[in-house]
């Protein structure tokens, strides 16, 4: 590519991000050479992979562009996905105490709610109908998909992600079966300081460390409605995070993959790349363009939202629920300007 901006436009990452990633995973892409066969250069492997993820182009056409056979390109795709999943703990991780304080201050500055360290949501990743049990992947919008759950910070960096459940499963069930939920329940002090929490939509339970909006029934108060307005403004960041993910890596708008077991690792690999891109400075106009390109996919693929408050699954959750309700009520009271 003749310019850095053209490179980013085609491959959806900056030259800086590409070079950093190539240096990091090149050793993981150098497979054992078969007799009489040369291993594809790691740089060409990564470029071909990024083109695949950035476009809906067929493997055949991308293989032709990079002078790679279809079977070779398929092997490269799986190799890079595996490498990105291997380094994911270095790239996607929960913020430390100082980082959480900075995140909370930024959220508070944007909408007034004190204590937010992340926003959680789920989105559908459309897929080809699997050969085994295809019906369980059909969601309420009548297409086959796998759900991606993400917690992001105020800058759209992904703090945790979880993928693999069929999209027929509700967001709350996926949340309760995710590793991060178990961590939050068993070791909350490792993830939150006092009065710190994540926010989610009404699909999520009220807990000491998870605050959804009030359910707007007839008896909802003006103070609660005001809280919900501020809450929604804060929560928009996770929708922008999804929009950036879909807009940057357009193959996520429809993953036409035969191996269902490799879909979730592919989604996680895209999340790893997402954070790498955010960690390296990139053209803000191009990033905004990616977000604009992904907004329609976010609306089309919104996750499975319950219409009533989630029930508590054990006694500990009930106690955390009482603490969460008290925390939310206190925030709502302090937020209300009159």
TrEMBL record:
GO molecular function: hydrolase activity; metal ion binding; nuclease activity
GO cellular component, as recorded: cytoplasm; nucleus
Predominant cellular place of this UniProt entry's protein: cytoplasm
Xref: InterPro entries: HARBI1-like, HARBI1_animal, HARBI1_dom
Location of the protein in the cell: Cytoplasm; Nucleus
Cofactor(s) needed by this chain: a divalent metal cation
Hydrolase recorded as keyword: yes
Domain of life per record: Eukaryota
Record-annotated DDE Tnp4 domain positions: 120-275
Function comment: Transposase-derived protein that may have nuclease activity. Does not have transposase activity.
PANTHER family per the UniProt record, alphabetical: GH03217P-RELATED, PTHR22930
Assigned protein family: Belongs to the HARBI1 family.
Annotated protein name in UniProt: Putative nuclease HARBI1
Source organism (scientific name): Lasius platythorax
């Amino acid at each position: 590519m003749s310019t850095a901006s053209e490179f980013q436009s085609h491959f959806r990452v900056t030259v800086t991000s590409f070079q950093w990633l190539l240096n990091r995973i090149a050793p993981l892409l150098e497979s054992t050479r078969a007799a009489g066969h040369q291993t594809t250069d790691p740089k060409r492997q990564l470029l071909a992979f990024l083109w695949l993820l950035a476009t809906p182009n067929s493997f055949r056409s991308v293989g032709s562009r990079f002078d790679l056979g279809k079977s070779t390109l398929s092997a490269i795709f799986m190799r890079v996905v595996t490498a990105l999943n291997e380094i994911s703990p270095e790239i996607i991780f929960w913020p430390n105490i100082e980082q959480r304080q900075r995140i909370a201050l930024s959220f508070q500055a944007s909408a007034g709610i004190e204590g937010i360290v992340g926003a959680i949501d789920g989105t559908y990743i459309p897929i080809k109908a699997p050969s085994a049990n295809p019906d369980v992947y059909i969601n309420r919008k009548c297409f086959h998909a796998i759900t991606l759950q993400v917690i992001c910070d105020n800058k759209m960096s992904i703090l945790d992600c979880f993928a693999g459940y069929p999209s027929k499963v509700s967001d709350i069930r996926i949340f309760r079966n995710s590793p991060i939920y178990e961590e939050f329940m068993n070791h909350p002090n490792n993830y939150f300081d006092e009065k710190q929490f994540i926010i989610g939509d009404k699909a999520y339970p009220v807990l000491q460390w998870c605050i959804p909006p009030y359910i707007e029934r007839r008896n909802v108060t003006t103070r609660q409605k005001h809280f919900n307005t501020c809450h929604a403004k804060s929560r928009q960041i996770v929708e922008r995070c999804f929009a950036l993910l879909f807009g940057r890596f357009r193959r996520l708008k429809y993953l036409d993959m035969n191996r269902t077991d490799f879909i979730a690792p592919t989604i996680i690999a895209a999340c790893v790349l997402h954070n790498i891109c955010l960690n390296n400075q990139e053209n803000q106009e191009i990033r905004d363009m990616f977000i604009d390109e992904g907004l329609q996919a976010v609306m089309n693929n919104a996750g499975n939202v319950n219409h009533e408050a989630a029930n508590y699954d054990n006694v500990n959750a009930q106690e955390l629920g009482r603490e969460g309700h008290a925390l939310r009520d206190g925030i709502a009271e302090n937020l209300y300007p009159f």
